[in-house]
Amino acid sequence: MSSKLTVTTFLSGAIVAAGLLSAQPASAQTEVLINNYLPPKHPFQTQIVAPWIDEVVVATGGSVTPTLSAAAVGPPPKNWQTVVKGVADVVVLANLFQPKRIQLPTVAEIPLNSGSSEKTSAALWTTHEKFFAAANEYDGAILLGSFSLTPNVIHSGTGPIVSLDDLKGYKLRASPGVATNVLKELGAVPVASGPSKIFGLISKGVVDGVAVPAHGLLAFRMEPYIKAVTTFPGGMSNTTFSLLMNKDKWDSLTAEQQAQVMSVSGAHVSSKGPGMDRIANGAMKKLQEGGGQVVEADAAVLGVIRTFADKMEADWVEMANAKGVDGKAALAFFRDQLK
After folding, report:
1. Which end of the chain is more exposed for a tag (fewer CB within 10 A), N or C?
2. 307 and 188 in one domain?
3. Phi/psi of residue 231, each to 5°?
4. Residue-wise pLDDT tens for the chain (339 aa)?
5. Which domain covers residue 266, as residue numbers?
6. What residues have CB less than 8 Å from 17, skipping those under 6 apart?
7. Is residue 334 one of the residues assigned to a domain?
8. 11-15 contact pairs (CB < 8 A, 24+)
9. How many domains does the chain have?
10. Residue 189 domain flag
11. Same domain, yes or no, for 170 and 247?
């Protein structure tokens, strides 16, 4: 059996794409292998990767055929190395796994700074094009697109989490980076893990709750174990992602193919945010219909997060300036795009 899944096996409705593939001689096709480490129904797959696969096939007339690896060819924290070394041709990288290399996109991760995937993703790409691209943070790979999720919220397995007292000593699974640091400031106990371990942690009671976006209720099958979700105006924090291609693979494409791929990449990838928002909102609605609660953090909690956000913002501006980017101008531009 082949170790790769073709786009036609992954996308049951891609009849047009399948026709294009069958019409092309094998020698005219360039296969692009994507590191596939998430289940087919995860929002990354349904909203970002699957549409991009289909659109690339159509845009290139079948001459470029993205395919999903049958199993992960590298762990998510190592996706930068996976794509740069050519183990996979394309990866979706959580930027938090490259904190010393990819720093400018964290403007979209500042707490209380974003409300939806739609606006935040679009703002991130336009800000990248106007301010960040010249800093060349992706040297060694080709950036095909950027996006963010809906903001992180707190999924509680014990009941509503509203106050600082509620959070004191509360064990929450969280990603490394901003989310973990915010929770520490709030007095919680963050527990780091990969996404594949979330279900086991919450279902077995190893943690009291989970700090991930609302889509996690369904994507990680947590909903039966969650009693309440705590939201934050503008989000507790966010996570940004980069769609990357191996540079040698990119250089192997013709100039026409590169233009065709980019016609469905860049801002086009960022435009997928509404789908992320719909999934997150639908997950919250399902929780409430099942008797779960959705609450908002109180003023004291938001005050602590605001203090953290102000410090992160100042540090971000200083970092951007050091990279030759006008930090204040870039931050103001990014926020203006969120309106």
Report:
1. N
2. yes
3. -105, 165
4. 433 333 333 333 333 343 433 334 333 699 999 999 988 888 889 999 999 999 999 999 999 999 999 999 999 999 999 999 999 999 999 999 999 999 999 999 999 998 899 999 999 999 999 999 999 999 999 999 999 999 999 999 999 999 999 999 999 999 999 999 999 999 999 998 888 899 999 999 999 999 999 999 999 999 999 999 999 999 999 999 999 999 999 999 999 999 999 999 999 999 999 999 999 999 999 999 999 999 999 999 999 999 999 999 999 999 999 999 999 999 999 999 998
5. 4-102+131-148+241-274
6. 7, 8, 11, 53, 54, 57, 58, 62
7. no
8. 11/50, 11/53, 11/54, 14/53, 14/54, 14/57
9. 2
10. yes
11. no
Question: Mapping DSSP to helix (H, G, I), strand (E, B) and coil, where does residue 215 land?
Answer: coil
Q: What tokens appear for 118 in the block?
A: 């739609």
Rg of the chain over Cα atoms, rounded to whole angstroms, equals 20
Strands (DSSP E) found in 71-160: 90-94, 141-148, 152-156
Asked if 39 contacts 33 with a C-beta cutoff of 8 angstroms, the reply is no
Residues 215 and 302 grouped into a single domain: yes
Does 78 share its domain with 183? no
Which residues share a beta bridge with 155?
210, 229
Same domain, 289 and 220: yes
Same domain, 77 and 183: no
What's the full length of the chain, in residues? 339
CATH number of the domain enclosing 65: 3.40.190.170
Whether 302 is covered by a domain: the verdict is yes
Q: Are 333 and 131 in contact (CB under 8 A)?
A: yes
